[in-house]
């Protein structure tokens, strides 16, 4: 899942080497924390959050086979 997120986001940003995805596993949920270069934050979020919503939709669809809830958080460094 981390590779899927990286692949999607690296194609959108100007600094693809600075894309980081960290996974936090809890008993019934998995949270992926995505961080990018500060200048790329707007590209990942998009106008009115549309790009972020599209990325989350793809990630949630890919994770539907797992028995845990999956979340994607875009975090600031």
Automatic annotation (TrEMBL):
Cellular component terms (Gene Ontology): cytoplasm
Location in the cell: Cytoplasm
Gene Ontology biological process terms, A to Z: cell wall organization; peptidoglycan biosynthetic process; regulation of cell shape
One Pfam family per UniProt: KH_KhpA-B
One term of GO molecular function: RNA binding
UniProt xrefs under InterPro entries: KH_dom-like_a/b, KH_sf_prok-type, KhpA
UniProt KW Chaperone keyword: yes
Keyword hit for RNA-binding: yes
Keyword entries, A-Z: Cell shape, Cell wall biogenesis/degradation, Chaperone, Cytoplasm, RNA-binding
HAMAP family linked to this entry: KhpA
Subunit comment: Forms a complex with KhpB.
UniProt record similarity statement: Belongs to the KhpA RNA-binding protein family.
Functional summary from the UniProt entry: A probable RNA chaperone. Forms a complex with KhpB which binds to cellular RNA and controls its expression. Plays a role in peptidoglycan (PG) homeostasis and cell length regulation.
UniProt-recorded name of the protein: RNA-binding protein KhpA
Gene from which the chain derives: khpA
């Amino acid at each position: 899942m981390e590779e899927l997120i990286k692949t999607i986001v690296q194609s959108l940003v100007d600094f693809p080497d600075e894309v980081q995805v960290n996974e936090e596993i809890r008993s019934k949920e998995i949270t992926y924390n995505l961080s990018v270069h500060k200048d790329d934050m707007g590209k990942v979020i998009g106008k009115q959050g549309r790009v972020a919503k599209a990325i989350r939709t793809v990630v949630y669809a890919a994770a539907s086979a797992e028995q845990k809830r999956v979340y994607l958080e875009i975090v600031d460094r």
